[in-house]
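wait is this the right file?? whatever heres the structure
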């Protein structure tokens, strides 16, 4: 049996010799792509925020980064007890949840999907800004 595989962009063409005849089949392999990308968010200190990330045709592994620092692949994020990854692999949902936001949480966050067979890595970024509430400002300036 002899076969030839030729690739053009996102499609595979397979030519196979079957009983002395050549049979051609085309497999369109869908690429992983974002269904929902995270949006920039402004939150008050103490709020809960969810940075949304949903992927169609998921093939690679998903993780979040904070200002370029990788937060890992598991639901619980070591060193960040207020952070959690709400994931549903079968639906391609990988939302980052941050409870009781603080000023230290203000950063650029990136949802990263790694490469996989026939899929390039993809990334989407959002900025979290944490604002002071009027109560915070009053407490800060009433101490002076």
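ok assuming it is, sequence goes like this
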């Amino acid at each position: 049996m002899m076969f030839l595989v030729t690739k053009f962009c996102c499609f595979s063409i397979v030519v196979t010799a079957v009983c002395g005849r050549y049979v051609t089949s085309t497999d369109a392999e869908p690429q992983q792509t974002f269904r929902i990308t995270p949006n920039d968010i402004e939150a008050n200190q103490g709020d809960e925020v969810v940075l949304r990330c949903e992927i169609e045709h998921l093939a690679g592994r998903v993780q979040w980064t904070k200002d370029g620092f990788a937060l890992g692949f598991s639901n619980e994020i070591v060193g960040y007890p207020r952070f959690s990854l709400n994931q549903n692999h079968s639906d391609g949902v990988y939302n980052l949840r941050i409870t009781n936001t603080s000023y230290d949480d203000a950063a650029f966050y990136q949802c990263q999907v790694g490469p996989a067979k026939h899929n390039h890595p993809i990334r989407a970024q959002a900025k979290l800004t944490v604002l002071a509430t009027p109560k915070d400002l009053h407490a800060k300036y009433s101490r002076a």
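The helical segments are 134-142. so i think its the right one actually
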